[in-house]
Amino acid sequence: MANVNPLAWPKGVKLLCELCQQPALVQCTKCMVTYYCDTDHQKADWESIHEIICHLLVPLRTLPAFQCLSDEREHQRVQLQQRQKQLIEMTLSTAQLKLSKGNPGEALPAAIHCLRFSTELYGINTIESVPSYLLLAEVNLGLGRLMQAEEYLTQSQWVIMKNPECSHVLHQKLCRSYGLLCSIKGDLEEAIRYLANEVYFASEEFGCNSTAAAGGFYHMANVFSQQGKTDIADSFYTEVISIWHTVLSKMVKVYNAGVDSPNWRTSPTPDTEDISHQLDLFDEAQRAEASQILNSILDVQEKATKQEPDKICRTLHTLAMLHYLNTDLSKAQDLCSKALLVSHQVPNLDLTGHIESFMQQMQLKPS
């Protein structure tokens, strides 16, 4: 995997480390086009993203034949652009997934590559490179590197301000990162302002009852909790659970329809068309983030001085549906059983019947 023989390196080329841009001393022996300052950086890159993209880098970093026709050169240029776009998507999704699972250190190399590929293809100060800057800001926030995070956010904000047509999604992500940065710094009022703006942009793009807006509500609840405003925090946590419970209930219904009816995709109804699209877009990173948010709220509810069984029951049911969509039937059934026990503490709770019905559905599914 490593080659430390300087004679094997290309002559007349200044080799820099993939991660830190310091002089390179180690070469990847698989692709032969990637270099590192030491084996620690090589290992970190391999575990983060390089193992996935190693073979894709060879044509990107190999000079094309000089004696080729103009049509062939144009064809090669288009192919390289497509390869770069593919690498941007792969590094972005990989970093987001690792970040959602609480591994910002593992996400960092993939995020660095994402920015490099983006700026090589689109340029440094382009709107297309902003998602990469925002990703690196979020990764550095997770690592506690506030100065680096703020630098990436400042760059993102500058580009966004120069592009009035910038999407609500980028505004939303910028506001979230600034809100989290202010929260970590202890500037809680400013954090609330940014996170409220995040909810606004998410609602404009996806609707006020969307899971994107729920993310903003969740982070606002955490800030209110830091301020000691537990009643306000609880109301926001309740709103987050309500949104996720509604969305996941619809997803489960559509998912079951897909399992039971082979034609549900080709002949969708108005009720299933939109939610089936959401189900398609509900990728692993989003599921990991949802799991982290819902489990965090459940922990707050179960540790509260005055527990509210109806809210705990709804959160458990929401988590059960999430695990069901992740095809983890054992965990979903376990959570449903806990939710059912809690529901018996609340007389005439409407949710009890839904949980019982859901458990019956799961018992009919194969493991």
From TrEMBL:
<feature type="domain" description="MYND-type">
    <location>
        <begin position="17"/>
        <end position="54"/>
    </location>
</feature>
<dbReference type="Pfam" id="PF01753">
    <property type="entry name" value="zf-MYND"/>
</dbReference>
<keyword id="KW-0862">Zinc</keyword>
<dbReference type="InterPro" id="IPR011990">
    <property type="entry name" value="TPR-like_helical_dom_sf"/>
</dbReference>
<dbReference type="GO" id="GO:0008270">
    <property type="term" value="F:zinc ion binding"/>
</dbReference>
<dbReference type="InterPro" id="IPR053248">
    <property type="entry name" value="Zinc_finger_MYND_domain"/>
</dbReference>
<keyword id="KW-0863">Zinc-finger</keyword>
<protein>
    <submittedName>
        <fullName>Zinc finger, MYND-type containing 12</fullName>
    </submittedName>
</protein>
<dbReference type="InterPro" id="IPR002893">
    <property type="entry name" value="Znf_MYND"/>
</dbReference>
<keyword id="KW-0479">Metal-binding</keyword>
